[in-house]
Amino acid sequence: MMDMRKIICKSHRRLSEPRGVSPRSKSFGARLAALLVVMLAVTMLMVPLAKAAEVAMEKPAGEDKAVATLAGEVRDMGWVAFAARSEKGDWDLFVMRPDGSALRNITNTPDANEAYPLFSPNGKRLLYRQLKRDEMIDGNNYGAQGRLMFAKSDGTDPQPFGQPGEYPWASWSPDGQRIACLDIKGISFVDLETKKVAGKQPREGFFQQMTWSPDGKTLSGVSNGFGTAWSVAAMDIASGKPRAISSQDCCTPDWFPDGRHLIFSKRPGQWTQLWMADPQGRNPRLLYAEDGRHIYGGRVSPDGKYALFTGNINEDGDPGNSGAPMALMRLTDAPLIGGDGEALRKQHPQAKAGPVLTLPIGWEPCWTASETPGGETAKDDATKHDAANDQAAKETDVP
Amino acid sequence: MTSFHASMVKMRSLLTTIIALTGVILLCLALQGCGAPRDGADEHVTKLGSIEVTARLVEVPAEAIAKRDVYVYTGILKYEVLTIHRGQVPGKFIYVGHYNPPVPRYAAADQRVKEIGGDVASFQVGDAHRLALEVPLEEHYMGPIINPYFGQDTGPLYWSLWCNEVDQ
């Protein structure tokens, strides 16, 4: 995202510089004339360049036809929100179309960092954490850092909710009326309108990245309760009993929209990979692996057919730098091996070939079918999409 | 007479210096407890937490103290309790969680876990430690835990706040 803009800006600078004009050998008039000629030439060049740049920003990333086809498939499937470093150096929240186009900074807070955006189930609202500018985002603690914020999903009307440190690891209930929070004292369910705690239960080893299942009956999270440091686990809210879904250094679990599977990251060796399994931990399947990148932040599209993820070369989300590009793939193409991947292909001979769409640099993306995040430009579509989402939310049982 | 007086003054001065130096050396030795076996007691271990024990490390599983890239975790180690100084500890063995175990205790604290420390540089089987503890661990720490004893009957896990070397 930023790279594209930076490239365009650099092109402007280069083209603006008059070259081959020696001030010693030319008179002032000649130099002025040369400068005017160059400026005219630059102006003439700029018009098509600017148009090309616009097209480049809107066009699906990548030149490969299969990638372009993939980009075309997802382009109008709502919006993706994520955290990324802005041109001012802070971390802001951005939205984009799932193909990477229509990128927009929706927080624009140079004096603060924002992280961990989560769309409400109907896509109209967004919750996230806002940190002080000098506080580095902690890859294992970002859901508890700073203060919880709510905003409309296009970033407007941001409002703090509670004090700094409160409501850690907040996750939406299926009806968007409550949040589940996780702290050292346990799991609490908070009513958003009254801010009252509607229920509490022991955390049973859960310690980060907790998400509420689409049917409202189960929580997923990262647990220390199964011997290894990071296990992905599920907990039925009614019984309070946790079960391991995968216990080999796993994290960033999230639910498929139908609640029948979870997507998560797992680290069987040096590099972290993207996997899926059912809520009992059965039928684990590799989705994407690439030696040389840690694959985190897996999120499934609202229709359950695509997966978004981040691919960091450096561990821990690389918050001290700028992170790495996100990517998108079809789930029917899984398992996919990125890069050369010779060793990985031997381990996973069933690996398929399929396109992977490279997306802007970002971290912990979330995806909604709603058109609301697009703001005014998508207002008409928003009404139609959101009405359908509201109906779906009403039909969902909440415990 | 003058020469004798001068010699006396020099001798007195020398004697005073020797006595002063001896005093300083003795004071240093006393402060450092040099020569006496260390019992690990200090102002931290005797005050922090609700439990204080001297215990011997029974085993040190490699996975419980392994260096893990940028990720910091708590490793569970098994101790045999030798002396209970404060609080109550049922049973002979306890399972203690040390935060950031690959590094010395005096360097283990960070932004997430601030109030821990001690003078133990590394964990070695057979070493005795004076420990300030809390129990259960999950009420004092929320983060990754590598527990080689998972699935065994360990009883509640203890949380190590301070950990000093003890001479045996």
Question: Brief description of this entry?
Answer:
Chain A is 20% helix and 35% strand. Chain A is α+β, with helices and mostly antiparallel strands.
Looking at this protein, list some descriptive labels:
heterodimer; A: alpha+beta; 5-stranded mixed sheet; 4-stranded antiparallel sheet; disordered N terminus; B: 168 residues
Q: What would you say this structure looks like, in words?
A:
The complex is a heterodimer of chains A (399) and B (168). Chain A has helices spanning 2-16, 28-58, 65-74, 342-347, 379-394; strands spanning 79-85, 91-96, 104-105, 112-119, 125-132, 147-152, 159-161, 171-172, 178-183, 186-191, 197-201, 206-212, 218-223, 231-236, 242-246, 250-255, 262-266, 273-277, 285-289, 294-300, 306-312, 325-330, 336-337, 356-361, 363-368. Chain A is α+β, with helices and mostly antiparallel strands and 399 residues long. In chain A, strand 10 and strand 11 form a beta hairpin. The radius of gyration of chain A is 23 Å and the shape is globular. Chain B is built from 1 helix and 7 strands. Chain B has one helix spanning 2-32, and strands at residues 51-59, 74-86, 93-99, 117-118, 128-134, 145-146, 157-166. Chain B is elongated. With 168 residues, chain B is α/β, with parallel strands linked by helices. The interface between A and B is medium-sized, with 18 and 21 residues.
